[in-house]
Specification:
CATH superfamily of the domain at 277-431: Histidine kinase-like ATPase, C-terminal domain
CATH architecture of the domain at 277-431: 2-Layer Sandwich
Shape: rod-shaped
Radius of gyration: 44 Å
CATH class of the domain at 277-431: Alpha Beta
Helix content: 55-70%
Largest sheet: 5 strands, mixed
Number of strands: 5
Order of helices and strands: HHHHHHHHEHEEHEE
């Protein structure tokens, strides 16, 4: 047999209390109607008893139904503010019935529990003592000559003591149930808040991811289109139609690539370039970068070297390395004024690395934008991408000495790269 929970036990006690009240009230009415006590069997007294009994039953039922509906959240009106007036009305009606017949005296026992539940402890004890006295007096008044016995005193007193003891246990259970409900509400509120925070955090992460994707793809492509359009205008200004046509073709190809990127973002938020294996995608990137740079008048040579065995990489690793190459080469064409850049893809059993080295004008790494800033280099976003996969990124550059960017990503199952150490390999000597 399953152990009863505290709320279930409280409901059972409440139902027993209401059933007991109704049964004792009905018993008193029946005894008055059939004339068990001749003093209450006249037509006028019977009609009065029936009226008072109906009023008492109606008031009691209205209060209990209201409290039940409020506890089940079926009404927003809290009945607790009217609990004491409701109890006073019930007590007055009960006292009036007791005047007509001592059989209604026993209805006091369910009232004892109501006092214990609805009133403070001391006030409840005082009221219970007063009701016990009323019961004893009613027994005395309705007893015939010599009919009042010690049992008529002992019975109500024992009943009152029993009610106080049981009521004390009921109050303890009720307080436990209240604490349990408060705890449940707090847990539900905490869970809702945690779910809201996780939702907001997920939205922030997704926004950051999309901003990086757009920066490394669509934004770079649109930047190339702007540069190409200026180059076309320069060619037209010099009446070099063939050069303008060549550069226009590059604009068209770049726009088509970016259109493909945009469509893939709309469909499944991934990049068409990732459909190919990583070396092929990097080689295509080198070719396109070289074409676009030369179309703008930059004699850039871009080469790809593969070292070691590059194992099949997870989609996230391929995306990060490709985006790193795109961002780095975009910086080379936009800022470095380099003549040569080399991409080196290397693989080991525990890691994969990508180095991007150019012989451009270089810069001072300490002057890079801080966290939350981006003045066109995109290196902060690149570092965030690498660190998400527990990788490491290093930047080596000096004004006039070129730039070397190295990314090292641990493969699944390998220990994370130490972000405080630089990935091996990249230097201007690789040119």
């Amino acid at each position: 047999m399953e152990e009863a929970s505290t709320p279930a036990l409280l409901r059972a006690l409440a139902v027993s209390l209401h059933v007991g009240f109704a049964a004792l009230l009905a018993l008193g009415v029946v005894r008055v109607v059939i004339g068990v006590h001749s003093s209450a069997s006249t037509p006028v007294s019977v009609a009065t008893v029936l009226g008072l009994s109906g009023a008492l039953a109606g008031v009691y039922l209205a209060g209990t139904v209201w409290e039940y509906r409020f506890s089940r959240h079926r009404t927003g009106q809290d009945p607790r503010g009217l609990a004491v007036p409701w109890l006073v009305v019930i007590t007055v009606l009960w006292g009036a019935l007791t005047v007509f017949s001592p059989d209604f005296s026993w209805v006091a026992f369910p009232l004892f529990f109501l006092y214990l539940v609805l009133l403070p402890r001391v006030a409840a004890w005082v009221c219970i003592a007063a009701l016990t006295a009323v019961v004893i007096v009613a027994q005395y008044l309705h007893a015939g000559p010599g009919g009042f016995t010690a049992a008529m005193v002992a019975g109500p007193v024992v009943g009152a003591v029993f009610a106080v003891v049981v009521g004390h246990g009921y109050r303890a259970l009720y307080r436990d149930a209240q604490r349990h409900r408060r705890t449940v509400r707090q847990l539900e509120a905490a869970r809702a808040e945690l779910a809201h925070q996780e939702h907001q955090a997920g939205r922030a992460v997704e926004r950051e991811r999309l901003s990086r994707e757009i920066h490394d793809t669509l934004a770079q492509g649109l930047s190339s289109i702007v540069l190409m359009s200026r180059a076309v205008q320069q060619a037209l200004d010099h009446r070099d139609v063939s050069l303008a046509a060549e550069r226009t073709a590059i604009i068209e190809a770049t726009a088509a690539e970016n259109l493909g990127e945009a469509r893939r973002f709309v469909r499944d938020l991934s990049s068409p370039a990732l459909d190919a294996d990583l070396p092929t995608a990097l080689q295509q990137l080198c070719t396109h970068t070289e074409q676009r740079a030369r179309a703008t008048g930059q004699p850039l040579t871009c080469r790809l070297r593969c070292e070691g065995r590059v194992p099949p990489l997870p989609a996230q690793h391929r995306a990060v390395l490709l985006r790193a190459a795109q961002s780095s080469l975009a910086n080379v064409t936009a800022h470095a004024r380099a003549r040569t850049t080399v991409l080196t893809l290397a693989g080991w059993d525990e890691a994969v690395s990508l180095d991007v080295v150019d012989d451009g004008q270089g810069f001072t790494p300490e002057a890079l934008p801080g966290p939350g800033e981006d003045r066109g280099f995109g290196l902060g976003k690149l570092r965030a991408r690498v660190e998400e996969l527990h990788g490491a990124l290093s930047i080596e550059s000096e004004p006039g000495q070129g730039t070397a960017i190295g990314i090292r990503l641990p493969l699944p199952g390998a220990p994370p790269a130490d972000a405080t150490t630089s990935p091996p390999g990249p230097s201007s000597g690789d040119l």
